[in-house]
Specification:
Rossmann fold; alpha/beta; binds NADP nicotinamide-adenine-dinucleotide phosphate; 2 domains
Length: 417
Amino acid sequence: MASCSSVALSSPSPSDHNRNSNNMNTARSHKRAKVSHYYTELHASISPDSNGTSSGGEAAPAGKLEELKQREAELANLLAAVRREKLSAIQSRPLKIGVLGFGRFGQFIARTFQKYGTVVVTSRSDYTEIASGMGVTYVPLSNLDSFLAQDLDVIVVATSILSFESTIQDLVPPLERDLNRRKQKGDLVKGPLIVDVLSVKEHARQTMLNLLPTECDILCTHPMFGPDSGKHGWHNLNFVFEKTRIDGVVLEQPDDMPAELQQDNSEAFVDNAGQVHSVHEDSESHVEAMDRVERFLSIWEEEGCRMVPMSAKRHDAHAANSQFITHLMGRILGSQGLAPTPIDTKGFESVLKLVGSTTADSFELFYGLYKFNQNSLDTILQLRSAMDEVVDKLKEKEDEEEERKNDTPTDMSSVAS
Ligand code: NAP
């Protein structure tokens, strides 16, 4: 990967750079050594004569399959060892996670976060009992200073879409007091990582970039599941994320990047002049900040989510034509008053399920999906015209049939003439 260190970046000073470069070089070479160790093992496990094209050609000699299966098992063991090492790295530095907004979704994610670290929650309503039932600490939202005094590594904002901006606004003054406290303590990472889980992403991203102090890193996420679809676990469920700002640097987003870097977006970004940088090039605080993001993302990975790096912009375009339209259809069918019948088909059972799962979410959430995704209105208009188109087709067909009927001779006399 090309990198350019001549372009000034916003956060670390040159003196920071010099002070940390020795540590950084050691950390980098250690990392490289580990990576090359795994590659060596991997290469050793792959047949030197194999070029990966096994179709066609001569039949494999007897015994070949057994040998391949053995190698397959070796690779599986190697992968399992890497996974174990990864898990112990996560467990060796458990995160202290604050959840702001302990409603339906906040409770759902806090339960899982607890497996990986300490959880402190805050909300407008009093959730003391639910929190103590789950074994997490509850602090009232009116006392954000004591929420922040818990030395949180990460704050996950899980309030409604509609209240998100005012929530972030209210968070800023106590956050600034917390930053001063951390500064006096001499913390390497200057502020907590702020994560949102909103179902609309451009609004969340812009609000956080506009309002949060630059000392706070920003991670935009959207778990594409909730308390219903994720009640049996998170395996294979999509988790969309955008590493938005790390150590004061706003990162270029995956789908805005040159194609050759898209595979490696966690390691690189492009500045305004089009120069590519490694996020690790500047300071130890950058590495620490990135490590904290990775530890948080690992929770979702370990739970089996399908991790999808994607820009907020692209997320919103996709979500309007997938998630929003699902909620829209559920609401429309729900307001039609559909109910089970004694002769339900499987298809109709799915329709009722859709109505049930979409109306279980608050109407506020549905309104937020509409109001704060600029693509949602287009989706409604397209749906309306698609409905008209389908109804028109039915009418056309009916008219054609009618015409055909009128053209058909009806009595024998007309046939004879
Ligand atoms: P929601 O109705 O969107 O949000 C409820 C939460 O917002 C509660 O914690 C509530 O606090 C808080 N809240 C509402 N108005 C507030 C205000 N004026 N000031 C402070 N807090 C306020 O329902 P939700 O399902 O829990 O969703 C929460 C977030 O998760 C949303 O941003 C949503 O987009 C996202 N999300 C939800 C799902 C899902 O399946 N439900 C999936 C992915 C992402 P109190 O309860 O204390 O009043």
